[in-house]
What does this fold into?
Amino acid sequence: MSSVLAHGGDVAALTGRHLRHLRRTPEKIIGVALTPVAMVVILGYLFATVVEVKNTGGSYREYIMAGVFAQVGLSCIGITAIGVAGDLGKGLIDRFRSLPMGRATVLVSHTLADLAAAALSILLVAVTGLAVGWRVHGSFLENLTGFLLLLGFAYAMLWVGALLGMVMRNLEAISGVAALLLVLFSFLSSSFMPLTGLPGWLRTVAEWNPVSAVSEACRQLWGNTGPAASGSFPVENAVLVSALSIGLLVAVLIPLSLRVYRISATR
Amino acid sequence: MNTAIEAAGLTKQYGGHRALDGVDLSVEAGTVLGLLGPNGAGKTTTVRTLATLLEPDAGTARVAGFDIVRQRREVRRRIGLAGQYAAVDELLTGRENLVLLGRLLRLGRRGSAARAAELLAQFELEAAADKPAKEYSGGMRRRLDLAVSLIAAPEVLFLDEPTTGLDPASRATLWRMVQDQVDQGVTVLLTTQYLEEADFLADRILVVDRGRVIAEGTSDELKRKVGGERLEVAVADGSALAQAAAVLAPLAVAPPQLDERQRTVHVQLPDGMGALASAATALDYAGVTVEEFALRRPSLDDVFFHLTGEATGAPGPREAAKAEASV
Ligand SMILES: Nc1ncnc2c1ncn2[C@@H]1O[C@H](COP(=O)(O)OP(=O)(O)OP(=O)(O)O)[C@@H](O)[C@H]1O
Ligand SMILES: [Mg+2]
It folds into this structure.
């Protein structure tokens, strides 16, 4: 029991450290939120006037918001990656490892603090969305579930970032890879367009992309979609599929990251 | 006296390269061991292994009475580590750095704050305590790093090149601060490239090269290994060199060596002032005009070159000559 408390204290102390970093370098949040906010404005404001979403009846502005939120999750990869790589490069991890701390403490507190950054970015995007006319419909509970799914997805992505940071170490390289992942996964998904027009195999890949599942689930939970279009499993059961894929990602990524942490810190 | 650090046969392999090749060492509690060696000798690897950051491939070690592999956590509770590169969080202030580490070492919020204030005063960082560490100079950063490593009053302190890159004044300050710790009973293992540093701080010195210990002893013992004090006589006129050597030869324990270029004779005399006085008298009596008459103790530099000469490059002719003379 006392050891649980002690570990909690360690996580609190280190999370506090990262939150201080966040306060002293607010550009981190801007880095996460900038692309998605720009997307809201460009797609939701400029494109929405000419694009009409086929088969759904919903407005394009409402359609893309869930996709933009999922993009916030993807851009979280970069912040944790850079934070972890920075600590490794500066020898801070060596110092932390010479303390009698739990082996998960360092990465857990990195991801917890970055989750706060993710939540803040989600808030920024929501405000921008509301300003350009996005609205949620349906029950409060459903709406809330949508945001919780988003946070869960962001949390999984933070662990992708932790892994990336430990493996790549070089800050420029990390920024490059993080940007590539952002573009690849958000455009190969139903974030900004329904997948009905894609050739068969590509459509299957895109439909099973967790980003598609998360954004489709949010659209459904926020009432931002017309009657469901295609009858494929991941689309019809978007909430279930997204929850499961987030769970699966976290279940794989956390133990894997902790293993890599053990190895990479001793290099 | 009990042993604070004890290692036997530490081996660490990186791919095909042996960074540590059977390192044995032992440090008595309350003393300072200096680890001396050229770049790549394995100093950092030794420190990181003893500080439980690396697991040795073979060999065992105990630090503060606990096994570095099986009782890692116990070891970590009792050590402080200042790595080769000052590991401070640049975005946090000096005080915040100290408090963070204090909390991670379970001193509690209040305990950490009190200890931080104490260390800031002790390390002359009070004025900069609430500035972010990125605004610190190299010397301040080093001092902060050392302060952070002392936050939980460790029994054993590991310092990896603590003064590299510091100016002589900051180096002296840091030495004093390390010495303070030793006076309080802390055991220190420090690595260094500066021989004066080992000379000044260390009770015993270990010379490592290519992952092996190649010499061990007090600074005096190591110097004696290279040869005792030698007399250096520089003559005004080069043609008198042979004469000077001939005059000194009967007094010396080994044949004198001549350095034509420097117009100098090196001789090793028996211990004591008597031999020195006779040498001066003999030279004067023979009418040799002496420009310089100096007794020179070998420096740790001589020891270093003598021991690692082959590894660090070709030994100079003088070093080679000395090496021959001492065997
Ligand atoms: N992570 C690593 N991977 C591969 N080789 C390594 C690694 N760390 C150290 N080495 C090698 O092990 C040897 C010892 O390195 P170490 O850092 O202990 O030397 P050192 O005595 O501290 O040198 P310096 O004075 O330059 O700090 C070197 O040859 C180095 O190249
Ligand atoms: Mg080193």
